[in-house]
TrEMBL record:
<dbReference type="Pfam" id="PF09754">
    <property type="entry name" value="PAC2"/>
</dbReference>
<dbReference type="InterPro" id="IPR019151">
    <property type="entry name" value="Proteasome_assmbl_chaperone_2"/>
</dbReference>
<dbReference type="InterPro" id="IPR008492">
    <property type="entry name" value="Rv2714-like"/>
</dbReference>
<feature type="compositionally biased region" description="Acidic residues">
    <location>
        <begin position="325"/>
        <end position="364"/>
    </location>
</feature>
<dbReference type="InterPro" id="IPR038389">
    <property type="entry name" value="PSMG2_sf"/>
</dbReference>
<protein>
    <submittedName>
        <fullName>PAC2 family protein</fullName>
    </submittedName>
</protein>
<feature type="region of interest" description="Disordered">
    <location>
        <begin position="305"/>
        <end position="364"/>
    </location>
</feature>
């Protein structure tokens, strides 16, 4: 472990507090870029969590030990005659707090090119150090599925509780390895609970950002780890992309035919899966809340209602307030605010997809 600390990573000092639920240690979410990231879902999941939630660095890995810069050249910005910026390849672990103050750990950044075994052992050492209870690795794969059906997130795990009612595969498959999979194997050997969630992205959208895959991955993480994650901004992006896709499909009978064939194949597969897994919660279905969960939600509603009434009462004590001046509509709705009105380009099935130049909204 001393060799790992000296060569592989540096711990933050002073170290941030890594708290967790009193019932157990924190969850570690692994979202490494570069492998099995169709629709940019894994990278976008990490970016969204870091943009929308409070986080602090815990450990930073040494890029010179792990990254082959010739195969992953960072982008450089040149302004006139000067180099003014260079893309940062940050590989590390951060402690993140969800919207209700619960903490979890996030390992994100580029997948290492080198020293996978030393890297995975270092991650396992850090999981031991911080008392990680569960680890969830994120993946996203191109599949022969249509964008018009609920997105599938399949799961695998050594702990049934982490994948309860989720879509799972019963057959044996052989896949190309990844650093995330090696982390799963290393933690399993140490007796840790590990799981992998894979978003099934329509193959014709694999090269473009696909917010639905990001949303479903994070929703699966939230349910499995008991976290409150902000997803509304992603839902807005989902609506925008769905509208773009609908327009493109309507403009092409060839695309409509391909999508229809994929829909039939999808429906047949889910019916087959339902017949062999009658208790499974299929894509698009939602688990009914328990009586205890309904009671807790009602208590939160009443507490919020009491706080609102108390705030309104304190404002009434000072008498009526002066109404603000009427705002100029042009100040509220500037001319350049709004969706792009340009017509989508005609596309073939292989390049069907939304524009990929828009980032996820900041959900702060």
């Amino acid at each position: 472990m001393q060799d790992n600390e000296r060569r592989m990573y540096d711990l933050e000092y002073p170290a941030p507090e890594v708290g967790a639920d009193p019932a157990g240690g924190p969850t570690l979410i692994v979202a490494l870029q570069g492998y099995a990231d169709a629709g940019h879902a894994v990278e976008s999941s990490a970016d969204h969590l870091l943009a929308a939630l409070d986080s602090r660095p815990v450990a930073s890995f040494n890029n010179d030990e792990l990254i082959d810069y010739r195969s992953r050249r960072p982008a450089v910005t040149m302004d006139k005659h000067r180099i003014t910026g260079m893309e940062s390849l940050n590989l590390g672990i951060r402690v993140v707090r969800d919207t209700e103050g619960r903490s979890f750990l996030l390992l994100s950044g580029p997948e290492p090119d080198l020293r996978w075994e030393a890297f995975t052992e270092a991650v396992a050492d850090l999981a031991d150090k911080f008392g990680v209870e569960n680890t969830i690795c994120l993946y996203s794969a191109p599949m022969a599925v249509p964008h018009t059906r609920p997105l599938v997130v399949s799961a695998h795990s050594n702990t049934p509780a982490l994948v309860n009612s989720m879509f799972t595969y019963d057959s044996k498959v052989v896949l190309p390895g990844s650093a995330s999979m090696m982390i799963e194997r290393a933690l399993h050997k140490r007796g840790r609970n590990v799981a992998g969630f894979t978003a099934h992205v329509p193959h014709y959208l694999a090269a473009s950002p696909y917010p639905a895959a990001t949303h479903e991955l994070l929703d699966a993480v939230a349910r499995a780890a008991g976290l409150a994650l902000p997803l509304r901004a992603i839902e807005n992006d989902m609506s925008r992309v769905a509208g773009q896709l609908a327009e493109q499909v309507d403009d092409s009978s060839e695309i409509q035919q391909v999508v229809h064939l994929l829909e039939n194949q999808y429906d047949e597969e889910l019916e087959r899966y339902r017949s062999t897994h009658p208790k499974a919660m299929l894509p698009g279905e939602h688990e009914m809340p328990t009586g205890e969960e309904i009671g807790e939600e009602f208590e939160r509603f009443l507490a919020a209602l009491d706080s609102t009434e108390a705030a309104n009462s304190s404002e009434d004590v000072g008498g009526p307030k002066e109404l603000p001046e009427e705002a100029d509509p042009e100040d509220v709705y500037p001319e350049d605010l709004g969706p792009d009105d340009s017509d989508p380009e005609d596309v073939y099935p292989e390049d069907l997809g939304p524009d990929d130049d828009e980032d996820l909204d900041d959900d702060r």
